[in-house]
Amino acid sequence: ITNDESVKVYLPSEKLKEGEVLEFDATAYDLLQTINVEWPCLSFDIIKDNLGENRTEFPLTLYFAAGTQADQAVNNKILFIKLSNLYKTSSQDDSDDGIEYDEVEEDPILRDSFIKHPFGIINRIRVAPHKSEILSVWGDDGSVRMFNASEQIKYIESSTKRAAPFNVKPLFTFSGHPCEGFAMDWSTVKQGRFASGDCSKQVYLWEPTEDGLWSICETPFVGHESSVEDLQWSPSEPNALASCSSDKTIKIWDARQKSRCAISVRAHQCDVNVISWNKLVSYLLVSGGDDGEFKVWDLRTFGAKALPIATFKWHTDAITSVEWHPCDESVLAVSGADDQISLWDLSLEEDYEVSSPEEQSKIPAQLLFVHQGQNHIKEAHWHPQVPGLLASTAASGINVFKTINI
């Protein structure tokens, strides 16, 4: 909005002129909520619940786990959040679902619990796909820990006033990494299988044991020349693992052969920060780099000289998160250090009869939406049970939103 109150669409690549201000357009969202937390969270994950799949009706209920970045090691926590009574952001007298939103109680209800994490900052946190009460935590003290959060989840699910215990000991701790790290992932194909990677280039394989714990293979995966930034298990093959590194490569591993990778590609001209394996089309992988580029790869033609099937340079700073939509094979979310989350549909093509040459050069046809308003965005995740709903964490807090075009 300018001094004369005229309204125009803002592009993140443009600088605001004197007298211009940004205003949030609520009509662009079906839902938008902000969660303020005591300490910034570098990482979070969505906890799957028993409320059903493919939920589209409001109000919504959501569960999250997040790890803090507190001022002192002893103040860090694993947070568990239940957000309920989530109605549509836009108030309409005659809504599509027949609810008159001016007459309902629209204030969300937040219920939370925590586990103390006095070991230090939580670099990354991931919930086990087959057992949502089990979660893995990468700490900046160089250890990876497994926790059972069943009591915390039961507490936020119920209305009891009795708090869950917060001094919960880890189920399992692995201190074999030579330094801290960020990379880790659970296999969705083989229950309990897990991998963790550190900043000294090593990746370790975790195998579940009969007593509900894990056995760590003594020999790490050997091949990267620098910090392992992210890991992704194949959504269809139990032994296929992808890794990316600040050595500029993406590697595909066979878990049965750790001495060398199966495939290695120099993927970016800079650090490769994040990767995501498409759960619906298992030969598609997306990567994000320090230069703000993200690239889509076809693993059927993946090799030493492979080229991406698509490259996008929309973000103006490092890519911090990429994730394919869980139920739409061509849609993905990308977050960057430029305080943007961009949503894309790679199946779209430019309509040259409708768009002007200026629009074609500024806005890619595949770009669906740009979400802003958070500072130092770290991660964005699609909700696996609520189609089109995204959550994101940043230094300024957690956002939950659903746009009108997804």
TrEMBL record:
InterPro entries named among the record's database cross-references: Glutamate-rich_WD_repeat, Histone-bd_RBBP4-like_N, WD40/YVTN_repeat-like_dom_sf, WD40_PAC1, WD40_repeat_dom_sf, WD40_rpt
Residues covered by the Histone-binding protein RBBP4-like N-terminal domain: 20-86
Domain of life: Eukaryota
GO CC term, one of those recorded: nucleolus
Protein's GO biological process: ribosome biogenesis
Start-end of each WD repeat: 221-263, 265-301, 312-354
Name of the protein: Glutamate-rich WD repeat-containing protein 1
Organism: Zophobas morio
